[in-house]
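Re: beginner question about structure tokens

> Can someone show what the tokenized structure looks like for a real chain? I only ever see the sequence side.

Sure, here's an example I had lying around. Input first:
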Amino acid sequence: MAPRVARLVALVALATASACTTVRERSGADGDTVEADLAPDLGAELGPDLPDVAKEVGPIDPCKPNPCASLNRVCSAGECGDCKAGFEDDGSGACVPEGDPCDPDPCASVNKECINGFCGACLPGFLVSEQGTCLAASACFPNPCTEDARSICKIDEQGLPVCLCDPGTHDDGAGGCTYDPCLPNPCTEPRSDCSIAAALAVCSCPAGTIADDADGCVDDPCDPNPCTDYARSVCAPAAEGGVTCSCDPGFGEVEGACVEVPVTNAPTLPAPEGDVSIDTSWQLFVDDWLIRSREGYTRKVHAAVRPDADYAIGPDPDADIGRAQAAGSLVHLDAAQLEALAEDDPLAGWPWRLYYMGFRQPWALDAQPAWLCVAVADDPAGPWTKPALRPEQPAPHCVLRVDGLVLGEVTHTGSGWLLSASRRALGEVSQAGVYLYTSADGVDFEPLGEGPVLGFTDVPVAPGIYGRIGERTRVVWDPWTQRYDALVSLVSGTVGDARGVISGGPDPLTAFPFAPDPLAAPGILGPTAAEVSAGRFYGDMAAWRVGGLWLGLVQKRENACPKTAWASLAASRDGRHWTLVTDEPNGLETPFLERALTAGDPDTSIATLSGGGPAAAGGLWHFFSGGTPQGGCAEPAAAGGILRHVVREGGVAGLVAPATQATLITRPLVMREGEVASVLEINAFVADKLVVQVEALSPIDTLLGTQQKLVEAGDYRGEPVTLPPLNALTGGRFRVRFTLSGGGELFGFRFSDPVCAAASCTEPERAVCDSSTGQAVCVCTPPTHDDGTGQCTEDPCLPDPCTALHQEGCEAQDGKAVCGCEEGWVKANGVCIPDPCAVTGPDAPCQPPGPDRCRAPGGLVECYCPDGSAESAVGCVETDARAFVTSMAVSGLGVGGQSAADLLCAGLASGADLPGSYGAWISDAASGAAAARFAGGGPWRTWDPETALWTRLVAADIGALVGGALASPIDRTQSGAAVPEPCGVWTGTLVSGGPPTGEEPGSGLCVEWSSDSADESSLAGDCHASDAAWTASATASCDMTLRVYCLGLPAAPAPE
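And the corresponding structure tokens:
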């Protein structure tokens, strides 16, 4: 046994392909020496739990494991020596098998070249796959299937590639692949509307109809809704026909009228419809909104605790403030907001501001003298400083000094400050209500508007049973929806005070009705019948956003002495529907801000709440409340201060796992627009192990990809889970799976993009940061993308995506790139295959009699005759009039007028064997407007090189001809030849079909087509144009030589 070593320093052995390294260590205790030649894997020999203190060290064989095995050399005392038996030095220092090392060929099975016994590059005719293997080139390798959701390649009986839809997808009926079970629509009349439920197609009746009892659809009697009485808008079809109109939620039937009923607390929140949109805020498991399924987890509420024995902010007797109360709000300014403050701002440098109520002494109930004050701190744990904003005044740290002030909520939206102040009708105020104030710095507040935006009344107005609204009302800003809401007090002496909400708008002055009714200010939380019997009612309510989640504190107060109060935790997802967060499985309510357990505890009756949400710092959420002594019945109490409470950040409620195993799967998630999920952070306590999986989903929940990580035991409070960048998985629909083994608790998770958060992409064209590679890259601002040359473009064909075998030409269709095929190839199942229509001779697929034109949509032969032709015994023959431009050009004199130009057209048509009679598109004084003699004619068609027929539509009738837009330009001669640029055409005709008159340009018509003088002119067209320029492009001097349009004349009417 080797001597015991008190300290063993790190031993490192570096083994390379050409040498061994001997590492010797001398270090010991009491004169002991450890000396050894070490193999590279010594750390593995000693085991993974090598401690920093003593470890027994035994005899070590430096050739185990053998560091020379890969070199085919003999190991001796850790050194690599001669070539081992059966190998010889090849002269370059490498040990190779004796004889011919490539006979037999050790690389033949992997399709690689053998070099001195080693396998090198792929053999000719073989290509390197993505996995590094060598595969024979074939119709499916390299894979030609590049279309979205169509990447499976199969070789058909003819040896051609066929691209199949990816697993989980199917043909959409239009040549694409889709996950959508409603494409193509499997629903037939009458239930022809298709929707998706549990990844399956569900057929239902169209809008405005409902299902009957015979698999049919009938008109919906509730569309439009005939129920128009107040609070009676719930419509349902009646069994005997007609409809029944029921009371709205929150109302009940009383003697034929819908009357408001006492507010009841919903046991759960409504489930989300469809995918859940999230941002980079914490996603907390205070409810099941995010959760599709959970097994083994039990929800537990964690009450906040008081870390301090004293007030965080106490009263100021010297300033006549005998009671400091938290009937205000907490505001945090981040680094950028602090930097934006003016240098002379009295609160510059303080990131935390706590606005609170300071009640003055002496005071009386009929006066309620109160000031809105502010305290500031570097850290919410304190100390809190009362800044000297107005040294010349009592209580110099107060920002608003008005009588009758009961409660204030200060909001900082980034662009300014807003204060909603609940005021009684005292002093200069004759109307009690919520008044608004604005400020540029959060110190000097000025009134916004001339009166209150919400009025107070304790008297119910039928059919309501609550007075709307009470003085414990706050206007809060909702950053998720970018609007102001009002958390209002509903007052009742019989059913107990409750809480309501008014959903407002972006302008606080116009967001709310002055005197809201029960529909405008519905109840959201209220005391139970048992609580009402116990004399308990709901007082103040403060709420704040955590991403898509509303969290709230609801004050519960007792009417009976000692009139103590506490706060419970509530949650909402839409701001309208709320529920109290309770323990499972018994549903018991745990007070979140607890009152004193022992009567006489001086400061733990929660009399007031701070709005604005908790302060997040040091891994904790810091809450502030107004504490007042218990034991007295004064209302309000004459003394008190502000208390601080703390709880784990994001840990107001968690899901506790048993010591066995528990699994949670979220609903399908999508990131809000502009939000990127690159890194996953967790808030959890792991007793043993936690497996986290992030899974990309198709539109029907098919698993498209996954990343997973085993998280070891520990307490995680925002630590990132070590995974590759998740951008590709979280760019669409995805979900997260949490499996706890051995116990623990889940509080929530959040996604972030720290790489891009630290980057700055300021160029307008590249204002978006991409972290998918693990590094910050400024990419093109959507909807643009990089064109492959470093420029940004919206063109989906840049860079060219059509690089697969036999692809050629890219066309943008609906913002997507559509690849064409080389000449002689057609698209079939996502790849280009030989065009079956290219076969000529006796094997041609389309031959007369019958249609002899061939096309191959999807690679399938289709024999047809194009529009403007009909099948016959000799194949397809044209049926419509022709339109062409003359192959020869003439001067203005050469036109000779309409009759002479007609002869030119007739002669050229006859020479080209074109049937029918032809007239020139020429206007003159003798014959009149060009269009007149074509009335009743059409359609006119020109030569179509794709069909080799006169079938390309020019105009369907005379109306289309003079309508200013041709279907195709007349740019083919009588023989079908294309005309090069430029292509001027004599017309003397406006787009209306007649000649120019008076002083209009070109009205001379080359002096009635009898002059070739450069001093005369006439109107001319452009044969490559299809707009009005086809006939009236410009004037041309009569010495120029231009072409003439020739159109088939309508058949003469049959003699009567």
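Each token stands for a local structural state, so reading them left to right follows the chain. The CA atoms of residues 964 and 1028 lie 5 Å apart.
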